[in-house]
Amino acid sequence: MNETMICAVGNVATQPVYRELTTGASVRFRLAATARYLDREKNEWTDGHTNFFTVWANRQLATNVSGSINVGDPVVVQGRLKVRSEVREGQPSWTSADIDAVAIGHDLARGTSAFRRTQRAENAAAGTPAQPEPAWETPPGDDTADRREAVAVT
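Request: output the structure for the sequence above.
Response:
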């Protein structure tokens, strides 16, 4: 568990590419993260260096990203950082910084977003209703309230 976790804030640089693989859904896109700093001589904000990351998302996260994220969207990405380099003929030819995403969301400091909960596949396929919300007002250990709730649910 000695993985390097990263939280990157930036803009979606390429349209997410969705693929349905044998292991499940997968999506990838490029993230551009540009540092900004205050230039005190000019008294204005200036763009610094831009870092580009390839973001990979799998399974349900991939499905949700493909329907939610577009080019130019400000996003926050959390995941495992993987830096890969290739050496050809003794010389480095390229380096890639990838993020294996755990969570991706819109950066609400720069805009608004409308969240829609997705229905789980096992509930939708089986047609089973979602579990009822627990009675949060019931003090713990109150067995009579637990029995009343169980009778009301059935």
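The chain has three helices and six strands.
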